[in-house]
Specification:
The chain is of the alpha+beta class. The chain contains three helices and seven strands. The protein has a four-stranded antiparallel β-sheet. A three-stranded antiparallel β-sheet has the order 1-2-5, with no helix packed on it.
């Protein structure tokens, strides 16, 4: 019971799709090639609750949220723990702005900038851990 956890995931297995999903709270989002954002998240706007679904032996398949999209439509994927997601007023705006601000800089610079942002993150609702993982698609041409 003490080790149950929420789960966020994104993967590609060679079937032409990007698979995204979650159990519990947090945020899983993708920016599509048309600049739209698809996201999975737990809406807590009706009040804060510290009870969420977690990975346990009794978890039901209906508690998982899942989506997939063709990999050519996926520009980037962003995963955030609830320590970040719960504080967002505009999920799509945050996702789009984060991707835009970090996609054209080096991985080392993006990591440093993200770490600084998370260390200075205001915590108006809680002090949960704040973790962000981001994946970008990079097209490589054969030369």
């Amino acid at each position: 019971r003490d080790c149950s956890a929420t789960c966020l995931f994104a993967f590609r297995i060679g079937d032409g799709l990007i698979h995204l999903g979650m159990l519990g709270d947090g945020l899983v989002a993708t920016v599509k090639s048309d600049a739209s954002v698809l996201s999975l998240w737990e809406d807590k706007s009706r009040g804060f609750s510290n009870i969420t679904n977690a990975l346990t032996p009794i978890v039901s398949p209906k508690e998982w949220r899942y989506l997939s999209l063709p990999e050519e439509e996926c520009i980037a994927v962003l995963l955030c723990t609830d320590g970040v997601a719960d504080d967002l007023d505009n999920v799509d705006g945050f996702v789009s702005n984060f991707i835009e601000a970090h996609c054209s800089i080096s991985g080392m610079s993006a990591n440093r900038r993200t770490r600084e942002m998370l260390e200075k993150w205001p915590t108006p609702k809680h002090s949960d851990d704040k973790t962000i993982a981001c994946l970008y698609r990079e097209d490589i041409t054969d030369e």
